[in-house]
Amino acid sequence: MDQIKNQLQQFRQKLDGIEPLEKAEQATNVPKEYLTIVGTLVLFSLIFFSIGAGSMTSIVGFIYPAYKSLLAIESKVRGDDTQWLIYWVVYCFFSIIELFADMILYWIPFYYAFKLAFLLWCMLPQTRGATFLYEAFLKDFLKSQESKIDQALEDAKKTAKVIGHEVGSNVKEMVSGVAAAAASSEGDKKDD
Questions:
Q1: Which of 69, 105, 139, 142 gives a 20 to 30 Å CA spacing to 86?
Q2: Do 72 and 85 touch, CB atoms closer than 8 A?
Q3: Are 57 and 119 in contact (CB under 8 A)?
Q4: DSSP secondary-structure letter at 29?
Q5: What is the reported pLDDT for 170?
């Protein structure tokens, strides 16, 4: 029992200085270490039982890395920039695969719990999972497909330009037609 109390005391010390937890502790009269433990259990229970799990895992996979990326941009150290850029490449690649495999993934039990674990493994500096995946698999694949990706992007750019031009022309014709109809309607009213 003393060991548990010691662990809780150490955990409490790590939570010191986190203002939202301090306010929550004062408002509820519940120690912040208990609030954190219960909150974490509720979060993992929601994910485990797939109650809002898709949104929850996407938020976890995005919020912390986005915050750390902003800090990395502002810091003078360049190693953390590379780590977070690699994370975003892996995250995007994973999201694209997930988009196309969505119907299959829906049937995997506890998929979102696995996804959360995977994203945490990828993002945490202690594990550097994204760096491992990039170095082991993605780097060579992306380099071998670089010309195809560049060509696909160039084709998409040309197509978007053509579509934009066509939409602009159609809007211009439509506005001209509406203006002509309005002018004709005005002329008819004056004649009456």
A1: 105
A2: no
A3: yes
A4: -
A5: 85
